[in-house]
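Thread: quick sanity check before group meeting

JM: Hey all, I'm pulling together slides for Thursday and realized we never actually wrote out the predicted structure for the chain we discussed last week. Dropping the sequence here so it's in one place. If anyone has concerns about the input, flag it before I start.
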Amino acid sequence: MHGFWGELAGAEQSALRAIGSRSTFREDAVIVAEHDDSDHVVVIWSGLTKVSSHAGAYREALLALRGPGELIGEMACIGGGTRSATVTVIDPVDALVVDGGGFARFLRRYPHASTVLEQLLVARLRHSDRWRVSTGTASVAQRVARLLLQLDQRYGVPAATGGTKIAVTLTQHDLAAFVGASPRAVARVMESWRQRDIVVTGRRWVVIRRPSELRRIAGTQQPPA
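JM (edit): ok, ran it. Output follows.
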């Protein structure tokens, strides 16, 4: 298991497990809610979540996916204040939940775990910066292509009909929220790609049939006039 949990030493995992409680969350459950004043942290052992924030009254921005081994909710625990984002379950999650005070004491007792957390936060910041730079002047098609290629690299599995299936339950609305575009714009892009057999889509799934073409779009296509 990778992520925060996977980088901890055995003694650190045992100590954290001793002060936490095992919990399960079903699909669509909200583990933490934006603007809530709770401070617990959650280590995901299995399953998948999405991290989102509302940029306005109606516009949702999808910020990240978090899966096995990863830590969520740490910002409110470390920095105080209310939650900066909402974490929602995509696939049922089995997790360890630790109250904020207990987690803070754990970090003070285990400096290595504190260092692991610092490195995790730096890596997330760098990834976020790279994504903003790569999509800042990109067309919707480029942004969607880059996102699908990233998801395929991390979650792709061989599809029975050929190509690779992104084994993540994401809606077209989710894809739009990830790339900062309207669902209608993303729908037009996906329809064009379906007609060209670049992708095949179903309810909450995508199969990439022609990854080389998707890579070409991601790197060379210009924004439409």
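AS: nice. The chain has two domains: 3-134, 137-220. The longest strand covers residues 41-54.
JM: adding both to the slides.
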